[in-house]
Amino acid sequence: MNPLTKWITSRLGEPPSRCALEAHQLALLRETFACAQASRHYSERLRGCELAGGTPLEALQILPFSYPQELRAEPQAFLCASPSEVERIVTLPTSGTTGNPKRVFFAERELQLTADFFEFGMQNITRPRERTMVFMRGGSPDGSAVPGGVCDLLARALPCFGAEAIAYGEVSDPDHARAALISSGASCAVGIASQMLEIARFPGAQPQLRTVLLSADNTPRDAVEELSKRWNCEVFRHYGMTETAFGGAVDCSGGSGMHIREPDMIFEIIDLATGEQLPDGARGEIVLTTLTRRVMPLIRYRTGDFSRILTEPCECGCILRRLDEVQGHK
């Protein structure tokens, strides 16, 4: 059984089914819709709107979109709680020389829900008594981790099933990172595809890894194939961004698509030109609606990323919808 099935069962309080999951989503969507109207952004945007009936996707389709540029321009307008309830603020620098950075606000409970998702999703990738070295933003080579960051959340999650996470942070020196990975004795590495390739291509001895999880960047198939060959390991993919509270969708051992974190969010796939929802199997832009964020919920947030929902069942039997390869991450 995919460990994520156990996670869904704990969230739903009953054996998982698509019917039970969609009922869970609809109930949380109504709460999110009501909560969002306490913010300046959504009180204006949602004035006169009502949730439609039917499935969660049908309920969303008449609501207006939100955009990254709006979040950059005035992040406080998205806040639905007093500043005293904000326990973590993540600031994302812009890629250019001008413009405001994105600022995303979280409560501790919201980050803990991500750690819970990591706990079960990572059981497909690492095992009890194994070590995982995390090459992600929010860590440093001395092993320290920023509270509420990816390194910290994995460090919370893995001990829940007897594994261990070691923070390293993003790679600036591939040789140092390679040496640290070897000396750690880790059997799993988590990192950005481009940075993991830098380590793997660096001359000299290479780590003995069983698995690698690529996250927070485009994960093209050729990168997966190259890492798998160079390190003779199994490579998994994760899709997430700060706006998803870091956790979004993750491969299972079947390797046939990333299972979406549906108890906490809804992904739509829309036509870039028309904004209309596309059927499963069609490729378009990913639109995010959070279901368990109360400090800064996001409703129909245009991610600028492109993928499709896979239509064939996964061999692991998990009911969560699956996301194909993602392109265009901003």
Distance between the amino and carboxyl termini: 34 Å
Number of helical segments with 4 or more residues = 10
Order of helices and strands: HHHHHEEHEHEHEHEHEEEEEEE
Q: What integer is the average pLDDT?
A: 93
What is the assembly state of the chains in this entry?
A: single chain
Which descriptor suits the 3D outline? globular
- Whole-angstrom Rg: 19 Å
Helix content: 25-40%
Q: Which spans of ≥5 residues are poorly predicted at pLDDT below 50?
A: none
Instruction: Trace the largest sheet across and list its strands.
Output: 4-3-5-6-7-8-9-13
The profile of the biggest β sheet is: 8 strands, mixed
Please describe what this structure looks like.
By secondary structure, the chain is of the alpha/beta class. It has a domain at 1-78 and 257-330. Helices cover 30% and strands 18% of the residues. It has helices at 3-12, 18-36, 40-45, 56-60, 68-73, 108-121, 150-157, 174-184, 193-201, 221-231; strands spanning 88-92, 102-106, 131-135, 164-167, 188-191, 211-214, 234-239, 249-251, 258-260, 265-270, 284-290, 301-307, 322-323. Strands 4-3-5-6-7-8-9-13 form an eight-stranded mixed β-sheet, sandwiched between helices. Strands 10-11-12 form a three-stranded antiparallel β-sheet. The chain has a two-stranded antiparallel ribbon with strand order 1-2. Helix 6 crosses helix 7 (150-157), helix 8 (174-184) crosses helix 9 (193-201) and helix 9 (193-201) packs parallel to helix 10. The longest helix has 19 residues, at 18-36. The two termini are 34 Å apart. 46% of the residues are buried.
